[in-house]
């Protein structure tokens, strides 16, 4: 079984995921994937004539419906299969891993795998890695940290918006801001007398 998985991953890496599935379909291996009724929980004996199950790996798609493809592919972006062919360039202080694949299309050859899979936010990328990730510089975040002067050493924090009242920014004068509201709201205009 392990050799089958290794060969499948090797074929995906060489041909691409779309070509891999197209060839499986042409050879008749994905015939069971075309009928949504086959994915409902039914015994193996009740398959229609001409349909066969590829292997137990097909059973992983038991609840897959065409409407769910977007949500399933969104989860696929945060899995290890997305990182095939990528080289780990570095890890930041939050545990995010940064990858680069120079054989991929330019502009899509650098990416980040967030440490928190379920709750990720773009503000979890520190400034030193943001420049590398968005092609502003070719220096990795680790290299830029060594060059950064200590006097500009404000610690980067992720954005906690939506995490509770203590993390939500309230401007001065907002009813939920505990600060003083004794400031004047505007400065009235007074014309000068000539």
UniProtKB/TrEMBL annotation:
The keyword S-adenosyl-L-methionine does not apply. InterPro entries: NDUFA12. Coiled coil: none annotated. Keywords: Electron transport, Membrane, Mitochondrion, Mitochondrion inner membrane, Respiratory chain, Transport, Ubiquinone. It holds the Pfam family NDUFA12. GO terms for cellular component: mitochondrial inner membrane; respiratory chain complex I. The keyword Transport applies. It comes from the Eukaryota. It is found in: Mitochondrion inner membrane. It is a peripheral membrane protein. One of its GO terms (biological process) is response to oxidative stress. Accessory subunit of the mitochondrial membrane respiratory chain NADH dehydrogenase (Complex I), that is believed not to be involved in catalysis. Complex I functions in the transfer of electrons from NADH to the respiratory chain. The immediate electron acceptor for the enzyme is believed to be ubiquinone. Belongs to the complex I NDUFA12 subunit family. This is NADH dehydrogenase [ubiquinone] 1 alpha subcomplex subunit 12.
């Amino acid at each position: 079984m392990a050799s089958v998985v290794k060969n499948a991953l090797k074929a995906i890496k060489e041909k691409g995921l779309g070509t891999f599935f197209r060839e499986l379909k042409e050879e008749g291996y994905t015939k069971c994937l075309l009928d949504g009724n086959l994915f409902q929980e039914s015994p193996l004996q009740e398959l229609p004539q001409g349909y066969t199950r590829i292997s137990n790996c097909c059973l992983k798609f038991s609840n897959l419906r065409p409407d769910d493809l977007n949500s399933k592919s969104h989860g696929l972006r945060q899995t290890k299969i997305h990182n095939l062919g990528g080289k780990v360039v570095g890890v930041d202080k939050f545990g995010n891993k940064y990858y680069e694949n120079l054989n991929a299309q330019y502009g899509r050859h650098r990416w980040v795998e967030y440490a928190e899979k379920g709750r990720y936010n773009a503000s979890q990328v520190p400034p030193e890695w943001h420049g590398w990730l968005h092609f502003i510089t070719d220096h990795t975040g680790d290299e830029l940290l060594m060059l950064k002067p200590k006097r500009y050493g404000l610690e980067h924090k992720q954005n906690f918006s939506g995490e509770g009242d203590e993390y939500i920014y309230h401007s001065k004068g907002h009813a939920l801001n505990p600060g003083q509201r004794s400031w004047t709201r505007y400065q009235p205009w007074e014309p000068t007398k000539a």
